[in-house]
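Page 47, continued from p. 46.
Same chain as before, 139 aa.
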Amino acid sequence: MDISIFTDKSRIPNDDDLSVSLGNTFRYWQMLKDHVHLKFPKAMDEWKYPGDKYGWSFRVKDKKRVIIYLLPRENYFKAAMVFGQKATDIIMKTGISPTIKTALESARVYAEGRGIRIAINDEVLIDDIKALIDIKLGN
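Result:
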């Protein structure tokens, strides 16, 4: 089952918890979070606990929408994003990884758009995810 490594509802994870649990990938978590704040200084960080089935997840958002979800796992994390059709069309015309494009193309379409989750085990996809953030923010 794909669940957060943080499941204690009474305790919001902090950077020390993340550093220990994510190991070498903690720096990539920080890079993505920092990139959103660099591009959109008014972004807000928020931990959410949607229930025991999911555990804690982290999101960076503007006033009305989530820009990126960061989902902590043991020694890695997932970056999750939702894109409307306009952004999806833009992404398909970029040099972003074919793996990401395939995931986006095959994602189920909901009213809010297509959602994808990308496992981050190393730095390979970090630049692509930064590009996705830029597209999401209209930069």
